[in-house]
Amino acid sequence: MTDTEAGWVSLTTCLVVGVVTLAVLWLWRSCQVLMTFKRMGVPGPMPIPLFGNMLTMIRQPQEAFKFKPWSGNLLALRGDHWKHVRGILSPTFSSGKLKKMAPAIERVVLNLADNVTVKAKQGEMVELKEFCSSFAMDVFAGAAFGLQVDSVKNPKDPFIRHAHDLLFGRQWLIPILVTFPFLVPLFFRIGLTLSPKETTDFFYDVTESALKERLKEKEKFSDFLQLLVDAEKELEKQHEIDAEIDHRSQLHTSTQWTRKGLTRDEIHSNSLVFLFAGFDTVSTAMSYTLFCLAANPECLRKAQQEVDEKLGKKLADYTTANELVYLDMCLNEALRMFTPGFVVDRQCAEDTEVEGCKVPEGMLIFFPAHAIHNDPQIWPNPTKYDPERHTPEARATRHPCSFLPFGLGPRNCIGMRLAQLEIRMALAAILQRATPVLCEKSVYPPRSFEFGRITSRDGLWVKFQLRD
């Protein structure tokens, strides 16, 4: 062997040894991360190097988690920044503000009821998730931006098209980003996000245009953006009063989160999340409630009887919608069985220990809401649809954390009351006009699991029969 050949062999050997060494170090580091739960004393399945428990999550998609891509929204914020934004947004969902938004919801509900009548007269089979998604989209356009759209009659409306891209455009990215989270910064830099740039730009322009219109103060809107503008102005006035009363208030402005109002980026971001979170919750809860009622005629009869007694022929408004107790029980039971949000996540604020499990500060904890809602030790015979589980007497016997469709505690879903109001008003209007019944395409119970979200593999098919 010549000296040159020996040199090449030596170089190749060094490269191979180097690559193998780096691979071993990387694998060792990966295993250290994957064994975090074992070191904490948390029991669970053994992770696989590189993939962790991802393969199990793919085989059992009800354990998957949603990816939250927008950094300026309430779902992603932590600490003082979250407290600041939550403090401004919370008043926009008070009883008084919801009453102001109710007329915008009523207009969409009336259109929904008319569509139900048409479907019933034509004897059409209706896929409920698609049908209820149109309602949820129209409510969002009206309640958030003051726009009047009709997803059923005008499905090619730019607002509808871009909203669909925002919600479903790049769902294939979710398992990749969850499996390889270190790729998130790289994807962000090259512009590969869950939402196409054209779509986010569209909603930025829509929000900006709507904000400018509201800031002119020539017309008052009863929608989400108007309430944000009002909250910002009220907060600014209060800051001015506080400054005049006590100049020492300057001592308490040690962080930037004591500033007035929201930034434009925060308004844009939270407007998108208002759609992203509200749309799926409303459409899923509505469609599964109707489907479960169609499959359980006695529950349906009780719900319609209550609607008839409380409302007569009138549409539900803010006040009467909150009086539909049994209908709310039907909704809660559907939310238990088919929870839109699989998990509730919280971040540990300080080192703590829970029943022998050591949880370090900063660790993100996921509570499996769907698994809790279908645990036979908490909910006997969990596959049975039984609204009576949600009477005040039944609730009093269970732990508060046994029912988490909207989370729990200070960080529970801020739009919970608005979502419940929309759903009650819509369900009441449908049950006034028609009776949902199972049809030849119906598959009950539905097979309803997909990676990261609740969806029916076979569709939620029913027919509507007009009532006398």
Provide an overview of this structure.
InterPro entries: Cyt_P450, Cyt_P450_CS, Cyt_P450_E_grp-I, Cyt_P450_sf, Cytochrome_P450_3A. It comes from Pomacea canaliculata (Golden apple snail). With 468 residues, this protein is mostly helical. The chain has one domain: Cytochrome p450 (Orthogonal Bundle), CATH 1.10.630. Helices cover 55% and strands 7% of the residues. It is built from 18 helices and 9 strands. The strands form 4 sheets. The protein has a 3-stranded antiparallel beta sheet with strand order 1-9-6. Strands 2-5 form a two-stranded antiparallel ribbon. Strand 3 (352-354) and strand 4 form a beta hairpin. Helix 12 packs across helix 15. The longest helix is centred in the N-terminal third of the chain and has 32 residues, at 3-34. Mean pLDDT is 79; it is low at 61-71 and 241-255.
Key structural traits:
468 residues; mainly alpha; Cytochrome p450; two-stranded antiparallel sheet; 18 helices; 55% helix; 7% strand; globular; iron ion binding
List the helices and strands and how they pair.
Elements: H1 3-34, H2 36-40, H3 54-59, H4 79-89, H5 95-122, E1 125-127, H6 128-145, H7 158-168, H8 173-179, H9 184-189, H10 197-215, H11 224-245, H12 264-295, H13 297-311, H14 318-321, H15 325-337, E2 343-347, E3 352-354, E4 357-359, E5 364-368, H16 369-373, H17 392-396, H18 416-433, E6 434-438, E7 449-450, E8 453-454, E9 461-466
Helix pairs in contact: 5-6, 5-18, 6-12, 7-10, 10-12, 12-15, 12-18, 13-15
Function: Cytochromes P450 are a group of heme-thiolate monooxygenases. They oxidize a variety of structurally unrelated compounds, including steroids, fatty acids, and xenobiotics.
Protein name: Cytochrome P450
InterPro entries: Cyt_P450, Cyt_P450_CS, Cyt_P450_E_grp-I, Cyt_P450_sf, Cytochrome_P450_3A
